[in-house]
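Homework help board

Subject: predicted structure for assignment chain

Our instructor gave us this sequence and asked us to write out the predicted structure in token form, then describe one feature. I got the tokens but I'm not sure how to describe them. Can anyone check?
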Amino acid sequence: MGMRTRALIVLGLWVVALLALVPLAGRLDGVKTDRMVEYLPASAESTAAAELAATLPGGNTNLFVVAYFRPGGLTDADRAAAGRQFSALTAEFTPGIDPSAEPPTLARDGTTALYSLEVDESRGEPGEYLKDLRKIVADHPDGLAVRVTGPAALQADFEGSFDGVDTQLLLVTVVVVATLLLLTYRSPLLWLVPLISVAVADIASMAAVYGLVRAFDITVSDQSSAILTILAFGVGTDYALLLVARYREELHQHSAPGAAMLAAMRRAAPAIIASAATVTAGLLCLLVADMNSTAGLGPVGAAAIVGTLAVMLTFFPAVLVLCGRWVFWPRIPHLNAATAKRSGLWERVGRAISRRPAVASVVSVGVLAVLTFGLFGDTGSLAQTDRFVTAPESVTGQKLIGEHFPERGGLPLSILARNEFRAEVLRAVRSDPGIGFAEEGRSGPEYAELTAIPLDPPDSAGEYATIERLRDTLPKIGAGTLVGGASAMNLDVDTASARDDRTVLALVLLVVTAILGLLLRSIVAPIGLVLTVLLSFGSAFGASVFVFEHVFGFHGLEPSLMVMTFLFLVALGVDYNIFLMSRAREEASRHGTRAGMLRSLSVTGGVITSAGVVLAATFAVLMTLPLVAMVQVGFTVAFGVLLDTLLVRSVLVPALTVLVGDRIWWPSKPARPERDSADAEREPEPAPA
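My token output:
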């Protein structure tokens, strides 16, 4: 069976598979969730409080606060309009509730009035009706500002930030990848093949994730779904660049494209598979995370990598073989023609490094060390009101409440106490110095709900201290008392994320080092490479924190930022080292370690740099999203990938390898060189662009 026939069969099988995969991929939206309570581990106290509150009469409720504000003081017309609107709100969203039984809370300065609206969860997710709620209060007297805020509005605005994001993200990613492929290949045809292939990989990955959700009930958020698309396009394009470089080289040696592809696959596929295995294993380390959202990202990302690998090693080569040489037009590689010379830039870089490897090492480490200074700042976690790039109405409303109701600076806490301890717990809550307001709420056969509002702003150190103090003292007054609510959930997120940082980071390092050791059959090389990647991560993270604080003006860091960016930068950074070092070992067996590394740098420099730029650009697409967390992930990973590609992999790793010499492969030994390494260095070997 000829290669063209095999390629047609592979392509036909993928067409049939896509008929089944496309509908499954389309169902992924229906199983995604961005509810905070589903991000948390089951062991979190706020999770237990939410589950217990659901057993009370009326079940869980979504709390909205409608704020009416006039700088010079509310007028009689303002108060009358507010009363009419609140009556309309209760009639629409809480039928059976007497609006007169819920009088407004007035600010001491007379400028602001607050109405609280608790909507039963059976009504649906807050985002499904928030627009209708805001429409009812849109008609008001001139000069009166109306803001719909509260925990439910904050959550709804957060979820609403993802409306249309999938389409926007996909379009921007396609444009970025297509542009970079056009610039890289300078061909009006070739760029389409990898672009179509990574689109197929994205569909296959989404279908696989949908299957995982149905089979294992993993948590998939809009954020992890966005990262899935970025991984499929970014990593898939990297694999395409590496495979095409080898394929172009082999087309000079083989008359049939099929034979050239087989030779290219034999040389390139092992490194690509090792790279995918490293990233997949690193992602699966997230399964040990406490945070459901972080743990869910593990199989989501792993599915993206495995699906992309399957497509790029089957569908992509098949299409290239069927297209033949003409797909490279106008730079068609001809049989027996001299292959392109090594990149002059990377050859010059390699020779400069070989002359002064110690200087190159010291300068590289110095630059990286300076960038780590950003780690020594005092940046806290991102507050709920600071999660948005542009503040929505719920955020401006919450800040308005904090300014005019100093006793209601924070978000409401939900305290669940046994009925026999309800009075004692309420007294203890009201006497706490961090609480400005507390009242009784619903009660059931065993438990009652108390609502308490901290004095300090949401997610501030003061509010968190109040929550921790209540959690410490209240169970001593009433056994089984739980403290929940939006801010309590955020505190639990911070606590779980801190544990995940310690656990996941150590496990990722261990797994990545082990895989590198097996691949390179060495102990020294994996340890050295992981240390360089660690330094690269510290530099990228430190520089990013500085930029977030002093350039972007963000007021904190996404709690899971460190574990996510560490995983991507370590795993993807090791990727490029795998491509570099696997080729260096191959060349070292013929020419010695020193010349082998320089040859590897010269041969892989152009293609790996292109791959790094593409991957950085795809992650940078996350910066177009309206959430600070996604901007932070996108910037940190993009900056880190560029730093690793242009400095660590291009200068530091080659310099250290030249300094260490054959000991880099210890305890194994490279084969005896076929000729003197100095001769090899003087006679450059032709290599692909």
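Reply (TA_rk): Your tokens look well-formed. For the description, you could write something like this. The first strand starts at residue 61 and ends at 69. That's the kind of observation they're looking for.
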